[in-house]
Design a protein that fits this description.
This protein is of the alpha/beta class and 765 residues long. It contains 27 helices and 22 strands. The strands form 6 sheets. It has an 8-stranded parallel beta sheet. Strands 17-19-20-21-22 form a 5-stranded parallel beta sheet. Helix 26 (711-724) crosses helix 27. The longest helix has 22 residues, at 38-59. It is globular, with a radius of gyration of 26 Å.
């Protein structure tokens, strides 16, 4: 029987309704003596969104609605509560409401000293952030949340056939972090498995036939002990009377196929977009009497599918005639926007080439119908797909001048004129900064006033002159606050920027923005990835005017802020008709031109953010070298066309860097700033072991939490940093940009940060 289903759906809603409800609740929850009247509204909004999303799946002909993919903040955090392993350090009382505990773990608790928010890191190679489970030898597990079961009841009450989704036990442990020395988190598996069995049993009792159990770590180069664990785990779980659909995505299963095909599960889902090379072997080895779900619709990108190509895959040798075939997207649709319906002003040529989550539901159903009823039943869909394939070959996509410039890149264009020690001496002479120089990562709070002015200007309700004046007023305010705080290197605050990638995309040819193409990054934070549809170039300066204005207001150096080529690439929906390395070079040349214009304007410190560099790393090590070579080269192309006394900074956050330290060093940035506070500076060990040669600014406080850390706490972190990095190479800064914070907490935190730097100067020198 041919069926269709999805692995997950966007959570925020068509108009980001969940974001609004979350932020309203958080605001009321932070007010003293408030009874949180918005909690009930938040819960009701979640219920409404789930019902709406299930209705869309059913309307599009999906054979099941997927239940358990919804989260108020993060699906891994859902499992931390479901499995009863909330960190003891939060000191939750027995009567503390579940969602209050949930958000305290995600955002930090103001009521206990050890209430720092749990770590976040990237979900594999996406721009989605998950909450990292914390494991100790004494960690226990117990079924501790009813939310999943309540959601199953909701869906069944609405008359929908339900496929529940769980993060598998091996992946749950693997994606966590050990918080005690000499301890292996895999040793917790015997305590964890009984709880999973209990969950499966409960779901079966609720009438759930199929459970999608996600084990995405099968797409990684995992150690033998982890791979071996799958056999024991699924032997144990198969004892429950439910059908398990073992689900993998984001990568090839190479090296793990025999293990996977030997597991006693009723079904297997594979990513046929990123693991296309596996399909023939899997089709041969996977038992014909079991379900094989094939992800032929790209769940990570927004291009309309080539339905002929997808059907060729589904009808290929080994799949043709298979009775137990399910058609699906490659992964959860969490990573694409909601619907094209809101894109009323988009270039029609581009719009015809796109498919968001709702449209992908239709593509999946069309493929199922073609397999069941024949191509004639979906003739219109096939013809539309063919027109799109031809449309994307047009001149509107290609720019001969850009191609010529990339092809002419010569050797040495990606190298600074002098080695770092020479540059460092010249930069210190030019800027005369104190020890432990203080700065921020770039953005300051984006107030409602800023957002309103930007929105008014975009819809034509504010003149360009008035908008310019409004932004200059905000920049002046940021400079004034930094003067009061006593920071050493200023930024202009970025009031004119909506997003660190979207802003630049509006200036670059070959890139386009959507009106409502929002994708969840973490919690209520959503981003609107640009669409790279053609060759990229920079027709005019993008940041020079605002940075020059800020510099005119102060004698302190103002750091210019740019987004790096790999982050723009990684945080966009990238064209799939050109090599990513070529697109990276195109963007790098555009940023290089901007850097040159900033330097000509007298700006001596330029930060080129690359938080997306680690995220772009292929999930299999065999592909690392090729990627790192062209990705690091692209950064150097962007940054290397300056004089020795111009200081280049870069920023990276919420990722692991120790395994690519030589490549981080090869960027040759004069200063690197990075997220380190949530990990208690443990990230710096890799920089010490590698003997990282340049200057480093480890973040001393977490900007994703409203909590204001004390001076003593920041000094403690700086002392830890000074034990592994020479003090004369340490900068002092927050973890990341401050756009999501409020001014009051921002000022208080930065004031403590400046005080901590001054104390360090007195202590060390």
């Amino acid at each position: 029987m041919v069926c269709s289903h999805i692995l997950g759906f966007p959570r925020m809603g068509a108009q980001r309704e969940l974001k609004s409800a979350l932020e309203t609740y958080w605001k009321s929850a932070s007010e003293p003596d408030d009874t949180n009247p918005d909690l009930e509204k938040l819960v009701e909004m979640g219920k409404r969104l789930r019902a709406a999303h299930w209705a869309l799946q059913k309307k599009a002909g999906q054979d099941w609605v997927t239940v358990g993919d919804f989260a108020y903040y993060d699906h891994v955090l859902n499992h931390i509560q479901l499995l009863g392993c909330e960190p003891a350090r939060f000191g939750f009382k027995k009567d503390t409401p579940e969602l209050e505990r949930y958000f305290a773990m995600a955002r930090g608790s103001l009521t206990v000293e050890s209430g720092q928010a749990m770590s976040m890191t990237k979900w594999f190679d996406t721009n989605y952030h998950y909450i990292v489970p914390e494991f100790f030898p004494e960690t226990g597990f117990a079924l501790s949340s009813e939310r999943l079961f309540d959601e199953v009841k909701e869906a069944k009450a609405l008359g929908y056939p339900v496929k529940a989704v769980l993060l598998g036990p091996v992946s749950f442990l693997y994606l966590g972090r050990e918080k005690a020395d000499g301890f292996d988190r895999l040793s917790l598996l015997p305590k964890l498995l009984p709880v999973y069995r209990q969950i499966l049993s409960r779901l079966h009792a609720e009438g759930v036939e199929w459970i999608q159990i996600d084990e995405p770590v099968l797409g990684l180069d995992i150690e033998d002990k982890w791979l071996a664990a799958f056999r024991d785990v699924y032997q144990e779980l198969s004892r429950e009377p439910v059908k398990l659909l073992l689900t993998t995505y984001f990568s090839s299963l190479a090296g793990h196929i025999d293990t996977v095909c030997s597991l006693p599960v009723a079904g297997l889902h594979v990513d046929a977009i990123r693991g296309a090379e596996d399909l023939k072997e899997i089709a041969t080895k996977w038992p014909a009497d079991r379900i094989l779900s094939v992800g032929v619709i790209d769940g990570r990108n927004i291009w309309k599918a080539d339905l002929d190509k997808a059907l060729a895959v589904l009808r290929s040798s080994g799949l043709a005639g298979r009775q137990n075939l399910w058609v699906a997207p490659s992964c959860s649709l969490l990573h694409v926007p909601f619907s094209l319906d809101a894109e009323t002003k988009m270039d029609l040529r581009l719009k015809q080439c796109l498919a968001f989550a709702v449209e992908k539901l239709e593509e999946i159903h069309a493929l199922k119908d073609a397999l069941v009823k024949g191509d004639a039943a979906v003739a219109d869909a096939l013809e539309s797909s063919r027109r799109t394939v031809e449309l994307r070959k047009g001149d509107w996509v290609h720019n001969a001048q850009v191609a010529k410039r990339v092809n002419a890149l010569g050797e040495g264009i990606d190298r600074r004129k002098s080695p770092f020690d020479v540059r460092q001496a010249l930069q210190r002479k030019r800027f005369r900064l104190p020890a432990f120089p203080t700065t921020t990562i770039g953005s300051f709070p984006q107030t409602q006033k800023i957002r309103s002015a930007r929105a008014a200007f975009k819809r034509g309700a504010m003149s360009e002159a008035d908008y310019r004046q409004s932004m200059q007023d905000e920049i002046a305010y940021c400079i004034e606050q930094q003067e009061k705080l006593g920071l050493d290197v200023f930024v202009h605050g970025e009031p004119e920027r909506n997003d660190m990638v979207e802003y630049f995309s509006e200036f670059l040819e070959g890139m386009a923005m959507t009106a409502n193409g929002w994708v969840q990054s973490y919690g209520s934070r959503c981003v609107k990835p640009p669409v790279i549809y053609g060759d990229v170039s920079r027709p005019k300066a993008m940041t020079v005017e605002w940075t020059k204005f800020a510099q005119s207001l102060t004698d302190k150096p103002v750091k210019a802020m740019l987004t790096g080529p790999i982050t723009i690439l990684q945080w966009s929906f990238v064209r799939d008709d050109e090599k990513r390395s070529v697109v990276a070079d195109q963007i790098a040349l555009a940023i290089r031109d901007e850097v040159a214009d900033l330097e000509k304007a007298g700006i001596g410190i330029i930060q080129i953010d690359e938080p997306g560099l680690r995220e772009g790393l292929p999930l299999r090590r065999r592909n690392w070298r090729e990627y790192l070579d062209w990705a690091c080269r692209a950064f150097r192309i962007a940054s290397s066309g300056v004089e020795d006394d111009t200081q280049i900074h870069t920023h990276m956050c919420y990722a692991e860097f120790n395994d690519i330290m030589p490549d981080i060093a090869s960027l040759d940035a004069d200063v690197i700033t990075l997220e380190a506070s949530r990990g208690d500076m443990t990230l710096l060990k890799g920089f010490k072991d590698f003997s990282y040669p340049n200057e480093i600014g480890p973040g001393v406080y977490d900007i994703h939490s409203p909590r204001v850390p004390s001076v003593a706490e920041m000094v403690g972190l700086l002392k830890q940093a000074a034990r592994v990095i020479p003090a004369d190479r340490l900068w002092v800064n927050p973890d990341c940009g401050l756009k999501t914070r409020q001014w009051k907490e921002t000022y208080e935190a930065l004031d403590n940060m400046v005080k901590s730097a001054r104390l360090m100067r007195e202590t060390v020198y």
